[in-house]
Amino acid sequence: MAEFTMELNDEQKEVRDWLHGFAADVIRPAAAEWDEREETPWPVIQEAAKVGIYSLDFYAQQYFDSTGLGIPMAMEELFWGDAGIALSIVGTGLAAVGVLANGTEEQIGTWIPQMYGDANDVKVAAFCSSEPDAGSDVASMRTRAVYDEAKDEWVLNGTKTWATNGGIANVHVVVAVVDAELGSKGHASFIIPPNTPGLSQGQKFKKHGIRASHTAEVVLENVRVPGSCLLGGKEKLDERLARARERAKQGGERVKNAAMATFEASRPAVGAMAVGTARAAYEVALDYAKTREQFGRPIIDNQGVAFQLADMRTSIDAARLLVWRASWMAINGKPFTAAEGSMSKLFASETAKKVTAQAVQILGGNGYTREYPVERMHRDAAIYTIFEGTSEIQRLVIARTLSGMPIR
Ligand SMILES: Cc1cc2nc3c(=O)[nH]c(=O)nc-3n(C[C@H](O)[C@H](O)[C@H](O)COP(=O)(O)OP(=O)(O)OC[C@H]3O[C@@H](n4cnc5c(N)ncnc54)[C@H](O)[C@@H]3O)c2cc1C
Fold first, then answer.
1. Residue 45 Cα distances to 63, 101, 166, 368, angstroms
2. How far apart are CA 182 and CA 178, in angstroms?
3. Which residues are 157's β-sheet partners?
């Protein structure tokens, strides 16, 4: 187990500087354009693929870094560049992780390359779990997957919503109910291969922020996929369902709490995205406060402004520390006895919202225009307290973990 460290090693610093260069030279200059266009920035994803940032190998390398700092460092730098474009670059990772976590070696080898494509023909993937009536309450999901034994096929019906890359993805990973009695333990994940009949894009959402990231409904009407598209395979699913039924009889809470551990491990990455956006806005505000003069002196000479910057920087550093701690715990298998993963996401996302609002204030009228990036950063930051579990859900998880109550 690696000791917890607050310092990046030389290799990590090199990767950080390389990512920062890409974020500063390629992502940031393109941010305003793709925010206005509200379209997936394919040319930027292609650039990222060319240099090796848009690939599973890159994320796997960061993920398996035993200090736990690889992923948060990468997320912070890319999202420092721009949140919408960075989400377009890392969004495929959500679906890829779904396959890595539950898929067989064959499924991983077959589908992950098709999720990313290659630098000459980049593809994206989507992870579809949320539904119109199942957002925070994942267990109330309605999309059904029914096994057609005669054909060894699964038939999926339902409507997914809020799917990042939904409908434009080459490969969709869809979570569906296979046993309604078991709540979230009766869910299974399916690969929907490219061009499968019955899968279509519903409404594409016009969003407040992260507008360069495509978000849409995904409609599944009698979508038939081969048995081999069930992640993990049928035998494993049957065993898992049998175990879940047995445990449910003995008292279901243990079952539900086990599922929460996965979220604890993935939430710090979202916290790191929020740290990236917050840091970007803080830097713009600091520069502005040092150069903008009113009443014959730079506005930073007023304590009212300087103290805001002091608070902004303090919160950002505190958020990063929580994120790094939780990431280190996740990779080293430390139990999240106080829901430290949720804590990091909660604090970092609330910090991003607050800090970007303070940055708008420090820039005055300019902060309120699209001439300056803090306006966009402020809109972008609002997503962090919503997706991957809202702030209220994080507080609920933390409070219930502390009190020993069941999570749901
Ligand atoms: C831009 C974007 C991208 C997304 N990408 C994906 C994706 O790729 N794949 C995917 O599956 N999903 C995705 N999501 C969905 C996201 O995870 C959900 O929006 C989120 O989980 C909240 O669900 P909801 O929107 O239905 O809100 P609701 O669950 O309806 O919540 C509404 C409000 O009620 C509060 N609330 C709900 N329950 C409680 C409670 N028990 N106690 C206190 N307060 C409560 C919430 O905190 C919130 O403030 C995305 C969403 C957005 C906006």
1. 20, 24, 16, 29
2. 9
3. 144
pTM: 0.96
Residue nearest (by alpha carbon) to ligand 1 atom 2: 162
* 309 three-class SS: helix
Model pLDDT for residues 43-77, shown as the tens digit of each residue: 999 999 999 999 988 988 998 888 999 999 999 99
- Is 237 in contact with 230 (CB distance < 8 Å)? yes
Inter-residue contact 41 to 88 (CB < 8 Å): yes
Residues lining ligand 1, CB < 6 A? 94, 127-130, 135-136, 162-164, 207, 210, 215, 383, 386-388, 390, 392-393, 396
pLDDT in tens, 113-127: 999 999 999 999 999
Answer whether 7's CB lies under 8 Å from 14's CB: no
Judge contact between 207 and 215, C-beta under 8 A: yes
Q: How far apart are CA 209 and CA 378, in angstroms?
A: 8
* Token pair of 284 as six digits: 């713009």
Give residue 160's identity as a one-letter amino acid code. K
CA angle 92, 160, 150 (to 5 degrees): 95
Which of 2, 61, 11, 76 has its CA nearest to residue 328? 2
Give the residue from 197, 249, 245, 220 showing the smallest Cα distance to 142. Answer: 220
Out of 79, 90, 387, mutate this one to test ligand 1's pocket (max ligand atoms within 8 Å of CB): namely 387
Nearest ligand 1 atom, CA 389: 21
Q: Which DSSP category does 278 fall into?
A: H
Dist CA 280 CA 57 (whole Å): 27
